[in-house]
């Protein structure tokens, strides 16, 4: 009985450790004030232009541009909770307030409309 309990405990510890050790995206842009960016058309345009290859990328924008295709394909599987919450906030803002820019982003990163269908659900 004690050996069985020990085996179950070890299995649980290993499973929890594996889950915690799961790779996540770097926190490069975790400290960006999203409200400030979304409220400032100039800043927002700079990030959108970066994502759409129309302008220079700030370091955080370049990092986002690198991981964005994978994050979109995997439903942000490697995102931290903070990154996921930020992504939801940005998508909601773009859909509601900047649909033209959002459409351009989707044209590049979701040409087949797969993500659009997910967002509608």
TrEMBL record:
One Pfam assignment: OS-D
Gene3D superfamilies: Insect odorant-binding protein A10/Ejaculatory bulb-specific protein 3
Organism lineage string: Eukaryota, Metazoa, Ecdysozoa, Arthropoda, Hexapoda
InterPro entries given in the database record: A10/PebIII (IPR005055), OS_D_A10/PebIII_sf (IPR036682)
Organism of this sequence: Graphocephala atropunctata
Highest rank taxon of the organism: Eukaryota
Keyword field contains Phosphoprotein: no
Claim: Signal is one of the keywords in the record: yes
This protein's name: Uncharacterized protein
First and last residue of the signal peptide: 1-21
Keywords: Signal
């Amino acid at each position: 009985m004690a050996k069985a309990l020990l085996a179950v405990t070890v299995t649980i510890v290993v499973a929890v450790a594996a889950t915690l050790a799961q790779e996540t995206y770097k926190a490069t842009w975790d400290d960006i004030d999203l409200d400030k960016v979304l409220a400032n058309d100039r800043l927002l345009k700079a990030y959108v232009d970066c994502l759409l290859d129309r302008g220079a990328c700030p370091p955080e924008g370049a990092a986002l541009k690198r991981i964005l295709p994978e994050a979109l394909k995997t439903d942000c599987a490697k995102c931290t909770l903070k990154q996921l919450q930020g992504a939801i906030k940005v998508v909601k803002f773009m859909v509601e307030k900047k649909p033209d820019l959002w459409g351009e982003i989707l044209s590049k990163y979701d040409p087949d409309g797969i993500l659009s269908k997910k967002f509608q659900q």
